[in-house]
Write a structure and sequence with these properties.
Blueprint (H helix, E strand, L loop, with lengths): L17 E4 L2 E4 L1 E2 L7 E2 L8 H4 L5 E5 L6 H6 L7 E9 L1 E5 L11 E5 L5 E9 L1 H11 L26 E5 L3 E3 L3 E3 L3 E5 L4 E3 L14 H9 L4 E3 L7 E2 L10 E2 L5
Length: about 250
């Protein structure tokens, strides 16, 4: 697998459900059992993610966390990480008015100003890896205690604490046959600014690409603060269980 290229942010997406393990991608065949929602292909090595699918922790992956090379860069492929296609209603990925230390203009998830369904992904990790992901996102500790610092993160980058807040954002449809009720997502921190157009609307991906977002930032284009969270429930402490459930319309 090639290394993650910041110029390609949010990075290449898989063609379908995949297991990312030890620097490689393995396609997954979906089932209709939410406890065992996929089958690994013959020859795929066993790992914590593939053998304990019903115990994974799931979150919406709307930026680089849906790109297998970025998961490898973060070291999230060691126990196995699973990406499944998903649909999110009422939220959109907007470009921030900043760059990361690895040189990309990142995305954050904000409320849509009009009804909209966003095609995206959900990321499944083993419980021990949720801390690795939290540190890589600079997760804010909403209970007033700072997260445990990792002095040597896998990609050499630790964002400031409070960059993102882990929150419940409602129901997300997964692979057209499962749902996550109270799905988790990283939402912007209190000081986050997002790029806006001349009408004041967020500049969102994929309508706006990385090159356009960087040009807007370099030119000092308009932006605004995200402000207070709406319709989202901050998660205090450890990640809760996030089981996949069968969708009501699934036969």
């Amino acid at each position: 697998m090639p290394a993650f290229d910041p110029a390609s942010y949010p990075g290449p997406r898989p063609c379908g459900p995949v297991l990312v393990l030890d620097g490689a991608c393995w396609s997954l065949a979906l089932t209709r059992d939410p406890r065992r929602p996929w089958r690994a292909p013959g020859g795929a090595p066993a790992c914590a993610a593939s053998s304990g699918a019903d115990r994974l922790r799931w979150s919406v992956a709307y930026g680089a966390n849906a790109s297998p090379p970025r998961l490898v860069a973060k070291g999230l492929d060691r126990r196995g990480a699973v990406l499944l296609p998903a649909r999110v209603r009422g939220w959109v990925p907007a470009f921030e008015q900043r760059t990361t230390s690895y040189g990309a203009v990142p995305l954050t998830l904000v409320r849509a100003s009009a009804p909209r369904v966003t095609a995206t992904w959900v990321l499944g990790l083993t419980e021990p890896d949720t801390g690795v992901l939290d540190r890589s996102e600079g997760r804010a500790a909403v209970d007033g205690t700072a997260p445990v610092a990792d002095p040597t993160p896998a990609d050499g980058h630790t964002p400031p604490t409070g960059t993102y807040r882990l929150c419940g954002i409602g129901e997300v449809v997964v692979a057209e046959r499962f749902v996550l009720r109270g799905a988790l997502a990283y939402l912007p921190g209190p000081s986050t600014r997002i790029q806006i157009d001349d009408a004041g609307a967020p500049r969102c991906w994929p309508e706006v690409g990385q090159r356009q977002a960087r040009a807007h930032l370099d030119a000092g284009g308009p932006s605004r603060r995200v402000g207070a969270l709406r319709d989202a429930a901050p998660i205090v402490g450890a990640w809760p269980e996030t089981p996949l459930q069968r969708a009501a319309a699934d036969p």
